[in-house]
Design a protein that fits this description.
Number of strands of chain B: 18
Number of helices of chain A: 24
Largest sheet of chain A: 2 strands, antiparallel
Order of helices and strands of chain A: HHEEHHHEHEHHHHHEEHHHHHHHHHHHHH
Number of domains of chain B: 3
Strand content of chain A: under 5%
Mean pLDDT of chain A: 88
Oligomer: heterodimer
Largest interface: A-B, 81 and 67 residues
Distance between the termini of chain A: 27 Å
Number of helices of chain B: 6
Amino acid sequence: MSRFQKITAWLIPALCLLYIAIAAIRATRPATGFDFKTFSSLPVVSNGRIQPLDSLARNALLSIHGKQRVPGDDAPATPAAWLAELNFQPARADTRKIFLIHHDDLLGLTKLTPSEGKSYSYAQLLPSFAALQPEARRIGNADSKTWSPYEKALMSLTRNLTLYNQLKHALALPGQDHLESEFTQFLSTIASALAEEENQSRGQAFSQSAIDAASAPMTTVLDWTPMTEVYTTPSGSGPDAWKKLPDSLLESVEKKQALHPATLAYARLGDAYRAQDITAFNSALTDYRTWLAAQRPELLKKATSETFFNAIAPFYLCMVLYVVAFVCAIVSWLWNGSTFRSAAFRVLLIGLSLHTLGLITRMLLEGRPPVTNLYSSAIFIGWGAILLSTVLELFHRNAIGTAVAAVVGFATLLIAHHLSLSGDTLEMMRAVLDTNFWLATHVVVITLGYSATFLAGTIAIVYLLRRAFGSIPKSTATSLRGMVYGVICFATLASFVGTVLGGIWADQSWGRFWGWDPKENGALLIVIWNAIILHARWGGMVRERGMMVMAVFGNIVTSWSWFGTNMLGIGLHSYGFTDAAFLWLSAFMISQVLVMALGLVRERTRD
Amino acid sequence: MPIFKFLSSLRLTVSLLGFGMVLIFVATITQVELGIHEVQAQFFRSWIAWWDVMPGETKFPIPIPGGTLLGLLLIINLLAAHTARFKLSWNKAGMIVIHSGILLMLVGEIFTGLLGREAQMVIREGEILNYSSFPREVELVVIRPDADGLETVTAIPQSRLKDGAQFPFGGFTVNVHRYFPNSEILPEADASPAFDPVRATDGSGKGYAARRMPLEAADNRRDLATAFVEIIPDSGKSQGTWLLSNAFKGEQSFTAAGRSWKMAIRPRRLYHPFSIKLIDFSHDRYLGTDVPKNFSSKIKILNPDTGENREDLLYMNHPLRYGGLTFYQAGFENNDTTSIFQVVRNPVWTLPYISCAMVGFGLLWVFSQHLIKAISRRNKPSPAP
């Protein structure tokens, strides 16, 4: 290797590290003006878990708008800034075009004129509520499996409007512009009314007007409670001791205390935001953060870490790195072998490290093993495949392992990104699944089985493509054959053990080892298919090319087990039903069949 | 012997596994229409399964080998292959361990099918029950209340309930005019001409009409079994016709042979030699959501034979094993005041554990051998493609 080549082999990975460093610096850089960065890291409870406002805002935007960025030139720059606007200046937020309507019939129902980007604001949709509500009631009474595309679109719009409204009432009450004084006023009004009532009950002189004065504000607060599902105020210890903003007012009245620091902070934040008073806004934040750091440091730590995790978006960075690694691997095949091969492998290792850090952070945030839902299974399948390919690359040193790892890693992270659009990816576990032991064993092992089967299939694709559109030197063919065979062996082991562990979990928790549930059947199909490949190979029924074609079919079997079974919408395991995914799955399967057909192409030997 | 050669061949193994995949795939997609229980019976516990390749109105079923047939052939193939190529060596030992484990698993599944029982106990807070019931099976019971508060129950199983079936009791005959395994029951006034013309002349079913319905496929729906039965005393004059159904709560009474009797169609019961009392059911949700966080049942076991009287707590992933049965927390209803236990008897539940350990260990062994060979063979880099 020349000096120039050596430098290149290190320069590309170094640039990748620089890229990550820049992303990390950007994620930690303090905000100027309104400190939305600190605001975004305030902890609340929503969707059953403690999370920063940042996650709440991001997931809401993803669900409503499909993106984390609000459109428009003067739009809030971050999801948290949007959340602040939504709560503290709702009239303005209502003009942001974030609701998506793709279905023409739904557009007809709302009487909106088609707009660019098919996105509409809350204010534009407001007049159609009278038409939407009876439709939503009618559709809601029918089985969701029978909904037409129009009905699904309408229900999703209704859900998003509800979500939007609930968020709008989370940190403030729209229409009340001086919350701090109104909250304080509320406490004193109610306190004096209670005192007068006590006088009344003791038969002493009392003021009826003071009692009557409490009734209107009390109604306002009581009506506010059901409008939101966000718990803002950590009033005691333990996850269930959180209070919604209005409930925290009632608690203060009950316990004859001053406003809770959290409640006071949100009131001040809102008032300062409306007054465009940056200093007041930021000092309210500092006060509350100081209180949190002193009283509830664990909440602050968790929320801050999750905010940082969201901001750095490690899996997005990984996708970029995998593209770089793939390009380098291709270059190494076409030109200047070892330089770019080393560069590719080093970039892949950087990606793998970041991927691993991302996985570990998620595990720490959730307090769970790595795979808890469909989203995390995608992240983990990619991770497992890359880990296995790293081993292959160390053995074979021909950049095939790197290239394949980059493809599988990129594809699974892309799938994960699309799965994340359906909401909170760190959601709480249902009681049925609530056992770390089985999540850590059954789920992890079976997911590694998926990784290995996909990996074998992807290497086989490399073989079949190269064979069809060129020719494979004998040594490369031998190397590819060895890789596919080894990975299939590992896949058989992992998918078998994983499947049986699932059976044992089922036996432990609901009394039957095997129930022929679709997901169980899917896992069994993978085991059997891998066993078939091995037996066919040992029996001499297939040779190199046959084994490659069979390995590609393994991709179809695995994608069926991973996604296809969830689309049936039946059985204990169908926790991840997704709709548009059906088209993608079909397209993927057809593409795999086409690749398998390449196996029929006549050999062009060039030994 | 060519037949032995065929039975021990790897080609047969691969074909059987291939058919296995077809069976499992078809059974999975058929579940949408038939439901999981029907599919288990028609596909996995059968010799021949019928695959309806054109689901919908026009039926076009083609036969594929069923689970029992495939399982049996695989066992034969496995045994024949090992007999034919048996050779005790370290190289082969791993394979023998793997295949013995698989054999054990297949055998275990067959015995689970034969010996295993799955029932349910639906119990209210404060209630004491000494039986579980099979939610998918019904029985027609005729109950003779005896003087000392005891009851003599005669249960007629579902399989013997048919149109025209007759069951003689001492002094009278129960004559089943109509039996619908699943049905719709409506007040007579709302019934269309499609409903059966037979009507009840006595009991809680008077004024109702019923008609046969296809069996329910969905896992969460239950069949409503309905029968019109006539009581004919040996003297000859009919006592009237009753409409019995598991849609009605409680028993219906009639008089025959000089005393009063009760009868009902109800889920088939499995009586236990002990009782369970549900003391308390509790259920938490995650704050601000409907997602269940946990649910648990505090129960008391009352066993008159052993004098046991102790409390226990059942919750998700923590079943109660008692008296050869295992009780699992399966669900809840009625505003969290009723708990549902899955009650399972499976004498061979340990087999999968043993076979899993064997196969896992064997695979690890065999593949490590491969890996070691591969490493020793190839320690030089292979050129780029």
